């Protein structure tokens, strides 16, 4: 078996390993949906769930709730609209605001999608069964990055290094 360079370089390889794992899960999910004939993509379940719970939301509300960038949410919504799962109407009070809702087609297909999402949730639980604290640990890292990002922390480390030399 060949050694994994990213694992060997430990902390230096972390972001690349996270990206690699994320991509592997994403592509595998896409393959699953394609092989099962489902006309959805990974991440759409987040929008489906939000719109199911809230009935109608704006793109800004969705991006705030998911902590995704506005352009990232617009990209997902446009694909979902193209597939006939989401419809938009202009807000009566503010013509610039678009109100998003699930279509009749989306509501019809949701029970089937939910079967896959439930099975997928079980898959993730299976993957994490040897790491019972993973979600808590991951949350701690996310909170630290939200308090002070990589750039800020690295510049501070450079400054501290200069002071100690």
Question: Would you mind describing this structure in some detail?
Answer:
The structure is a single chain. The chain is mainly alpha-helical. It has 8 helices and 2 strands. Strands 1-2 form a two-stranded antiparallel sheet. Strand 1 and strand 2 (98-102) form a beta hairpin. The longest helix is centred in the C-terminal third of the chain and has 24 residues, at 104-127. The protein starts with a helix and ends with a helix. The mean pLDDT is 93.
| Main pleated-sheet profile | 2 strands, antiparallel
| Percentage of residues assigned to helices | 55-70%
Average per-residue pLDDT, rounded, comes to 93
Cα-based radius of gyration, to the nearest Å: 20 Å
Strand tally is: 2
Helix/strand/pairing category = mainly alpha
Strand content: 5-15%
Strand order within the widest sheet? 1-2
The H-and-E topology, N to C, reads as HHHHHEEHHH
Shape: globular
Number of helical elements:
8
Instruction: State the distance separating the first and last CA atoms.
Output: 42 Å
**Unreliable stretches, pLDDT < 50, 5 or more residues?**
none
Question: What keyword list fits this structure?
Answer:
165 residues, two-stranded antiparallel ribbon, 2 strands
Give the arrangement of secondary structure elements.
Blueprint: H1 5-8, H2 14-35, H3 44-54, H4 59-66, H5 70-82, E1 86-90, E2 98-102, H6 104-127, H7 134-147, H8 150-164
Antiparallel strand pairs: 1-2
